[in-house]
C-alpha cells in the first residue's frame, strides 16, 4: 500500500502546506518524523513477513502445497524479496518530498531502477544462481530507487532529525488521510490475491 501511492496521497498535502506557509523547519520536522515512524513500522512488517512467509504462501498460493518443490521455493523467494517492501516505501516517501520541491525527473526515473537491476542480475548471474538472481535484483532495485533520489534531497539541503513523535498534529492528520487511501488500494489488492490464489491451483 505504502509503495503504491497511499502514503504520498496523504503525506504530500501536509508537507506542501508547511512549505507554502514558508515554514521549512516544520516541514522538515514532519518529514523526518514520518520517515522515522515509517522505518520502525517497516522493520516490524518485514520481520513478520520473513517469519510468516509460509503462512503468506498458504494464503496467496495455496495450490503450491501440492508440490513441495514449488512451495519451498516460493517460501524462500518470499523471504528474500520481502525487504523490498521497506525500500520501496522509503523511496515513495522520498518521491513525495521531492515532488513537493518541484523535482519530478529523478522521482520519475526511480522506479526504472527495479527493471534495470533485475535485467542486469538476470543476465549476469542467472547461469549460476537461477531464479535467485532475479530475487537479488529485486532487492537491489528497491535500494536503488531510494538511493537515486538521495542526491536531489541533499541538494535541497533538507535537514533530517532523529525524532519519533506520535503526538505531532501532522502525523495525526496523516493517519486520518491515509486510512481511506489504504482502504481503496486494499480492494484492488484483494482482487490480486484472489487471482494469484486461483492461478496457483492451475
From TrEMBL:
<dbReference type="InterPro" id="IPR051050">
    <property type="entry name" value="Lipid_II_flippase_MurJ/MviN"/>
</dbReference>
<feature type="transmembrane region" description="Helical">
    <location>
        <begin position="34"/>
        <end position="61"/>
    </location>
</feature>
<dbReference type="GO" id="GO:0008360">
    <property type="term" value="P:regulation of cell shape"/>
</dbReference>
<keyword id="KW-1133">Transmembrane helix</keyword>
<dbReference type="Pfam" id="PF03023">
    <property type="entry name" value="MurJ"/>
</dbReference>
<keyword id="KW-0573">Peptidoglycan synthesis</keyword>
<keyword id="KW-0472">Membrane</keyword>
<dbReference type="GO" id="GO:0015648">
    <property type="term" value="F:lipid-linked peptidoglycan transporter activity"/>
</dbReference>
<keyword id="KW-1003">Cell membrane</keyword>
<dbReference type="GO" id="GO:0005886">
    <property type="term" value="C:plasma membrane"/>
</dbReference>
<dbReference type="GO" id="GO:0009252">
    <property type="term" value="P:peptidoglycan biosynthetic process"/>
</dbReference>
<feature type="transmembrane region" description="Helical">
    <location>
        <begin position="174"/>
        <end position="194"/>
    </location>
</feature>
<keyword id="KW-0812">Transmembrane</keyword>
<dbReference type="GO" id="GO:0034204">
    <property type="term" value="P:lipid translocation"/>
</dbReference>
<feature type="transmembrane region" description="Helical">
    <location>
        <begin position="81"/>
        <end position="101"/>
    </location>
</feature>
<protein>
    <recommendedName>
        <fullName>Murein biosynthesis integral membrane protein MurJ</fullName>
    </recommendedName>
</protein>
<dbReference type="InterPro" id="IPR004268">
    <property type="entry name" value="MurJ"/>
</dbReference>
<feature type="transmembrane region" description="Helical">
    <location>
        <begin position="131"/>
        <end position="154"/>
    </location>
</feature>
<keyword id="KW-0133">Cell shape</keyword>
<feature type="transmembrane region" description="Helical">
    <location>
        <begin position="108"/>
        <end position="125"/>
    </location>
</feature>
Amino acid at each position: 500500500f505504502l509503495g503504491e501511492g497511499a502514503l504520498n496521497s496523504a503525506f504530500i498535502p501536509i508537507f506542501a502546506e508547511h512549505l507554502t506557509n514558508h515554514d521549512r523547519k516544520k516541514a522538515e520536522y514532519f518529514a523526518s518524523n514520518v520517515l522515522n515512524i515509517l522505518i520502525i513500522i517497516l522493520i516490524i512488517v518485514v520481520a513478520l513477513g520473513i517469519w510468516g512467509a509460509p503462512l503468506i504462501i498458504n494464503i496467496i498460493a495455496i495450490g503450491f502445497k501440492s508440490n513441495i518443490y514449488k512451495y519451498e521455493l516460493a517460501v524462500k523467494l518470499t523471504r528474500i524479496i520481502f525487504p523490498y517492501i521497506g525500500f520501496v516505501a522509503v523511496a515513495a516517501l522520498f518521491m513525495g518530498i521531492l515532488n513537493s520541491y518541484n523535482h519530478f525527473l529523478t522521482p520519475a526515473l526511480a522506479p526504472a531502477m527495479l527493471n534495470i537491476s533485475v535485467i542486469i542480475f538476470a543476465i549476469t548471474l542467472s547461469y549460476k544462481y537461477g531464479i535467485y538472481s532475479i530475487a537479488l535484483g529485486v532487492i537491489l532495485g528497491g535500494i536503488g530507487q531510494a538511493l537515486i533520489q538521495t542526491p536531489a534531497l541533499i541538494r535541497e539541503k533538507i535537514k533530517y532529525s532523529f525524532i519519533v513523535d506520535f503526538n505531532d498534529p501532522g502525523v495525526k492528520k496523516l493517519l486520518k488521510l491515509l486510512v481511506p487511501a489504504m482502504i481503496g488500494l486494499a480492494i484492488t489488492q484483494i482482487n490480486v490475491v484472489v487471482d494469484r490464489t486461483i492461478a496457483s491451483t492451475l
